[in-house]
Specification:
Chain A is about 35% helix and about 20% strand. By secondary structure, chain A is α/β, with parallel strands linked by helices. In chain A, strands 2-1-3-5-4 form a five-stranded mixed beta sheet, with helices on one face. In chain A, strand 1 (about 5-10), helix 1 and strand 2 (about 40-45) form a beta-alpha-beta unit. In chain B, the strands form five sheets. A five-stranded antiparallel beta sheet of chain B has the order 3-2-1-15-16, covered by helices on one side. A four-stranded mixed beta sheet of chain B has the order 8-7-6-11. In chain B, strands 12-13-14 form a three-stranded antiparallel beta sheet. In chain B, helix 4 (about 90-125) packs antiparallel against helix 13, helix 8 (about 200-220) packs antiparallel against helix 13 and helix 11 crosses helix 13 (about 340-360). Chain B has 16 helices and 16 strands. In chain B, a hairpin with a 4-residue loop joins strand 15 and strand 16 (about 475-480). Chain B is globular, with a radius of gyration of 22 Å. Chain B folds into two domains: about 5-35 and about 415-480, no CATH class; about 40-410, Orthogonal Bundle (Cytochrome-c3 Hydrogenase, chain B). The chains are: A alpha/beta (about 160), B alpha+beta (about 475).
Chain lengths: ~160, ~475
């Protein structure tokens, strides 16, 4: 059975920056209710180097993050290894984590990034109404994908692994 | 024509900063400054909130050191709920918080050394930036890189087990802690499969120290002479003078090691410490009031802690401490790059302390919380990874917070970081007509030694490029470099 990890990151004390964390909370509840066994969840303020070890034994990883970019509500994209090294440990990107995983453990799960558009980022808890709508949309999308993860796994094109 | 060189933001520093270097017509460094845009609105934001929310609310400050803020806030609220001024908790409450704190120190120091500092040491300050990073370390020293990742993971798991969860942990509550350690958690930390057990963490901590000492031997000139300047040093110490990262009295020593703050109760910190405001930085400049604004500044953090304490109460770290002290013949150590040596000794100390605590039955049983007569004000101090962290709160009769004052570790190191930047700029840039990438990195190396944490804005704001801007005396940009 495929091992799946859903990893939300952000700061729920900064309004819509908590979209990734809220997503994990909601999806985990659904997975439990559905009795799905092979899905693990994680949630943190930001990605960091140890996450390379966390993803190394998974078949499919979906990072979930709030987005300030001009995107259409939600977007799910494959994560390419990032050649750009993160200079600050407070802003490790999913691509950087994938590269670390590849270089450290010589493995590469199928990795995707689910970006959910956010709107407000002040020192407050709770999501804005528009962010809540986007959260619902993203949940529907991932529920469908989790029921049939092979599609995401097989369509992912990994970087060539090292020979050693 | 006089030039102003701006490095913005500083890379591999937690948060954002900007360095401005003024060069006169002769190519001499006229002035260098580290500007930090610190968001002070948080202290107003908490006003009106119920006091018991503070240990969770303060974690909104930063996703890098939330545990330090969580514990400092909880310590201040211990005073408010009448649970004493740091030594009144139940054994379980005290020890669980300490385990959480040592896990935080361990993982934070590990991240700093392996991820941010080791590239400078392994590839040189002026090494090719395309290689001088953690990916370069992985390629050339894969074992070292894996150690860094797994040590950091171990520390994070300790935090999760004690704080309850990674996000907005609720472990520390006013007057104590809200959970015990389970048998399963204890077993996994003590006897987990290789390498995820405490004995391996101790062993790897020793390896990291051996690595640094070996590097030091080969690079004495750089490590001993880079950005050296005399200063006072301040930290908490245990009442008997031992290093204590969680609780103690406030001690400061001058550049010669003479005590200038005599183990005082930190509840009275306002009697001893003032904060100056300068028009070119949002970050304040703390100083010991008895010695004034010009002479009362001090350093905090790992190097300061080595200089203030009399001994380290764990055997392996104590042995390393003796070697560290012997290097300067027992006198205070003012060598900026020795922050890294001190930091690695603390990693070992925390690993030893975690092992002791994991074997302590008090973590798995006993009362969690204690309370007494409520007070309207409380101060909580902790030795955070980057140095002494102050939290001070007052409440009204409705249990609402009416005042909050935070002096974060990085603020305490404001003048020292500026001094280090100025010295480095003079050493590397005087007489230079072109600023190389290596010269820029040298300035950053000086700042990075202090491991500053500039409270993060939301991570969703994106990546941090390095931008170098040259501005002339008329404030016109004459050159710009970005990587």
């Amino acid at each position: 059975m495929n091992k799946i990890l859903i990893y939300g990151f952000g700061n729920p004390g900064r309004q819509d920056d908590g979209l990734g964390n809220a997503f994990v909370e909601r999806l985990e509840e659904w997975v439990q209710n559905e009795g799905i066994q092979n899905v693990e969840f994680d949630s943190n303020y930001q990605l960091n180097i140890e996450d390379a070890a966390t993803i190394s034994d998974k078949d499919l990883v979906v990072f979930v993050d709030a987005s300030v970019e001009d995107i259409e509500d939600i977007i799910l994209t494959p994560v390419d290894e990032s050649a750009k090294v993160a200079f600050s440990s407070h802003s490790a990107s999913p691509g950087y984590i994938v590269k670390l995983c590849h270089d450290l453990f010589n493995t590469q799960p199928a990795c995707y990034l689910l970006h959910i558009k956010g709107y407000e980022w002040e020192f407050m808890g709770g999501l804005t109404d528009k962010a809540k709508q986007n959260l619902e949309k993203s949940l529907e999308l991932l529920k469908e994908k989790i029921r049939n993860p092979e599609e995401l796994i097989s369509s992912f094109v990994p970087t060539e692994l090292c020979e050693n | 024509m006089p030039k102003k060189i701006t490095i913005e933001p500083v890379t591999r520093v937690e948060g954002h900063g900007k360095v401005t270097i003024h060069i006169d017509d002769e190519g001499n460094i006229a002035q260098s400054r580290l500007h930090i845009v610190e968001f002070r609105g948080f202290e107003r934001f908490v006003q009106g909130r119920p006091y018991w929310e503070a240990p969770v609310l303060v974690q909104r400050l930063c996703g890098i050191c939330p545990v330090s803020h969580h514990l400092a806030a909880a310590k201040a609220l211990d005073v408010i709920v009448g649970a004493g001024t740091g030594d009144g908790l139940t054994p379980t409450g005290d020890k669980m918080r300490r385990l959480m704190h040592y896990g935080q120190m361990f993982q934070s120091h590990v991240l700093h050394f392996f991820h941010l500092v080791s590239p400078d040491l392994l590839f040189g300050v002026d090494g090719d930036p395309a290689v001088r990073n953690i990916i370069g370390v992985i390629k050339k020293f894969p074992d070292l890189a894996v150690q860094g990742v797994m040590m950091r993971k171990f520390g994070q798991e300790i935090i999760k087990a004690t704080a309850g969860k990674k996000i907005h942990g609720t472990g520390a509550i006013p007057g104590g802690i809200n959970k015990h350690l389970t048998q399963e958690e204890k077993d996994s930390f003590l006897n987990g499969p290789d390498p995820m057990n405490i004995d391996k963490m101790i062993s790897w901590s020793q390896d990291a120290l051996a690595f640094l000492k070996g590097y030091h031997k080969e690079n004495k000139d750089f490590i001993d002479n880079f950005a050296v300047f005399p200063s006072s040093h301040l930290s908490l110490v245990r009442k008997d003078g031992a290093m204590d990262l969680y609780h103690g009295v406030l001690r400061a020593v001058d550049k010669d090691g003479k005590k200038i703050l005599h183990d005082v109760d930190y509840q009275d910190y306002l009697d001893y410490i003032g904060e100056e405001v300068k028009n070119w930085s949002y970050m304040k400049f703390p100083y010991l009031t008895e010695y004034g604004r010009e002479d009362g500044w001090y350093r905090v953090g790992p190097l300061a802690r080595m200089n203030t304490c009399d001994f380290i109460p764990s055997p392996l770290a104590q042995k390393e401490f003796e070697e560290f002290k012997a290097y300067t013949h027992g006198k205070p150590n003012h060598m900026t790059m020795h922050y890294h040596w001190a930091r690695l000794i603390e990693i070992l100390h925390c690993a030893e302390l975690m092992k002791d605590l994991l074997n302590d039955p008090d973590l798995m049983t006993g009362e969690l919380v204690t309370k007494g007569t409520k007070r309207s004000e409380g101060v909580g101090l902790i030795e955070a990874p980057r140095g002494t962290l102050f939290h001070h709160y007052a409440i009204n009769e409705n249990d609402q917070l009416t005042m909050a004052n935070l002096i974060v570790s990085t603020t305490n190191n404001n003048i020292p970081m500026n001094t280090a930047v100025n010295l480095t700029a003079k050493q590397y840039m005087t007489g230079q007509k072109k600023i190389t990438e290596g010269m820029m990195n040298a300035v950053e190396v000086a700042i990075r030694a202090y491991d500053p944490c500039l409270s993060c804005a939301t991570h969703a704001m994106g990546q941090m490029p390095l931008e170098v801007v040259l501005v002339n005396s008329k404030n016109a940009i004459i050159d710009r470099m970005k990587r």
